C-alpha cells in the first residue's frame, strides 16, 4: 500500500515498540518492595495505569509540568487506594521509578523482527514524547538504538506530539517530505492525527482494544506492517 511512496518510517517508542506497561509493572514491583510500601501490586496498577494516561494527556497539552506529572500520578493512586504515604516517599518513589524504568527492556512481540525486515528497505526514525535521557537508555538497553537514523524527542523539539512542530523537526532532520514518510504509533491523538495533520502517512498500532476508525489502517500485531511496507 505504501511501498511505492514511503522511504522513511517513523516509530513511536512507548506502547509501540517498547512494552511500557510490562516494564512499568516490573519497575513498581521492585521499588515498592524495596521501600516497604505494603500495597498489592495489582491493586496499585489497576488505578495507576489509567491515571498515568490521564496525566500524560495533561502534560502533552501543556496543562501540567513534568514535575506535576511525576508527583500527581502517584499521589492520586495512593489517595484513591486510601494508603497513607508521605510526600517525601512519593518524591522518592517518583525518582526511583524514573531511574529504574529504563533498566527493563521488554519489547512488544516481533519488534526486532520487524525492524530487521524494514531496515534494508527504509530509513528508520523515532518520534517520542518521552524525556531524552530516559528514552535513549530504553533504546540502548533493549538493543534497538542502532536501528534508527534520527531520534526526535519532545524535549529536543520544545513541544509534544501532536504539535506539528515536532513532526516538522523530524522531517527536517530526516531530510524527507511528508508524503514519503509514515508514522507508526499507538496513540490516535498524538501519533496518528498528529502525523496526518502534517501530511504524513500513518499506521495505527492498537494494543489495547481501542475503538476502530477509518483514519488510517489499523494493525494489532507488529508483523502486520509487512502488509503495508
Summarize the structure in words.
- It is built from nine helices and six strands, in the order E-H-H-H-H-H-E-H-E-H-H-E-H-E-E.
- It has helices at residues 20-34, 41-60, 66-80, 87-101, 111-118, 132-141, 154-157, 164-174, 188-197; strands spanning 8-11, 123-128, 150-153, 181-185, 201-205, 218-219.
- The chain has two domains: 8-19 and 107-227, HAD superfamily/HAD-like (Rossmann fold); 20-101, Orthogonal Bundle (DNA polymerase, domain 1).
- It has 229 residues and is an alpha/beta fold.
- This is Noncanonical pyrimidine nucleotidase, YjjG family.
The fold-level CATH name of the largest domain is Rossmann fold
Poorly predicted runs of 5 or more residues: none
* H and E order: EHHHHHEHEHHEHEE
**Which architecture name of the largest domain does CATH use?**
3-Layer(aba) Sandwich
Count of β-strands: 6
CATH superfamily of the largest domain: HAD superfamily/HAD-like
Report the end-to-end length measured between terminal Cα atoms: 7 Å
Proportion in β-strands: 5-15%
Structural class: alpha/beta
CATH class of the largest domain: Alpha Beta
- How many helices does DSSP assign? 9
Shape: elongated
Helix content: 40-55%
Question: Main β-sheet: number of strands, strand sense, barrel status?
Answer: 6 strands, parallel
- Any idea what the radius of gyration is? 18 Å
Q: Supply the number of structural domains.
A: 2
If strands are numbered along the chain, what order do they take across the biggest sheet? 3-2-1-4-5-6
The mean pLDDT is: 96
Amino acid at each position: 500500500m505504501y511501498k511505492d511512496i514511503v522511504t522513511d518510517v517513523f516509530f513511536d517508542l512507548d506502547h509501540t515498540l517498547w512494552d511500557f506497561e510490562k516494564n512499568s509493572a516490573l519497575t513498581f514491583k521492585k521499588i515498592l518492595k524495596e521501600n516497604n510500601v505494603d500495597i498489592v501490586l495489582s491493586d496499585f496498577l489497576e488505578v495507576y495505569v489509567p491515571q498515568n494516561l490521564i496525566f500524560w494527556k495533561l502534560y502533552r497539552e501543556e496543562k501540567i509540568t513534568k514535575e506535576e506529572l511525576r508527583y500527581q500520578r502517584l499521589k492520586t493512586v495512593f489517595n484513591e487506594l486510601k494508603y497513607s504515604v508521605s510526600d517525601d516517599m512519593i518524591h522518592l518513589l517518583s525518582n526511583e521509578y524514573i531511574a529504574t524504568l529504563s533498566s527493563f527492556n521488554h519489547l512488544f512481540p516481533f519488534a526486532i523482527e520487524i525492524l530487521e525486515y524494514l531496515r534494508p528497505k527504509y530509513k528508520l526514525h523515532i518520534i517520542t514524547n518521552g524525556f531524552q535521557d530516559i528514552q535513549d537508555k530504553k533504546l540502548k538497553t533493549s538493543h534497538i538504538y542502532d536501528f534508527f537514523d534520527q531520534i526526535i524527542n519532545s524535549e529536543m523539539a520544545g513541544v509534544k506530539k501532536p504539535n506539528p512542530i515536532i513532526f516538522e523537526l523530524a522531517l527536517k532532520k530526516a531530510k524527507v517530505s511528508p508524503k514519503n514518510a509514515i508514522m507508526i504509533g499507538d496513540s490516535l491523538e498524538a501519533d496518528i492525527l498528529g502525523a496526518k495533520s502534517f501530511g504524513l502517512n500513518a499506521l495505527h498500532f492498537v494494543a489495547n482494544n481501542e475503538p476502530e476508525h477509518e483514519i488510517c489502517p489499523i494493525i494489532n500485531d507488529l508483523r502486520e506492517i509487512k502488509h503495508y511496507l
